[in-house]
Amino acid sequence: MIRKNLLTTAIASTVFAGTMAVGTNAFAEQNTAQNNGAGNQQQAQGLYSADELMDADVFAKGSSEDEVGEVEDILLDNDMKVRAIVVEAGDLLDLGGNEYVVETGNFTVQTANGDSLDNIEYSVHLDMTQDEVSQLPEYTDTWWNQTKSSVQQAWMDTKEGAQSAWQTTKSATANALTSAGNAIEGAGDNAQDAAQDATN
After folding, report:
1. pTM, rounded to two decimals
2. Which of 136, 139, 148 lies closest to 106 in space, CA to CA?
3. Are 129 and 66 within 8 A, CB to CB?
């Protein structure tokens, strides 16, 4: 409950932009009819409520009835993009009630009653079996600290690389403008000298 309240406060409106904050594939929609063999597929919703996604039922690959667990947490990076969800496995399964980290790209979200904020419901469908889920990293303090450090370093490297590219671009542009200015000034001096020679 505390985690849920903190997440809700952190993102203020508790709404994610499906194609911006999450990426175009992470929250791809599947119609219930597709699971029943009808083959119909919904369009991505565009916006997703983090509040409603919390505690959503989670299902393993190839099963629309056997619940693996529920969404316990949603992990964001420095850019406020969803990097993963945390699935709390059910006690009745062989997963031992542990919490597992599932990265974006390994699950899809199915929406019901998407036009009603009061009645909207989500279910999460993993692209892996129950056995494969058990091989995922567990959501522990060790995992949290190690992953937080590595993601932060990657973010800093990317940021520094972008800043370096920006500085290089600015320097190249400044040099080009200086060269162009010198060329124009030189051409003006030459024209003035030529005019004086003609007068003499």
Report:
1. 0.63
2. 136
3. no
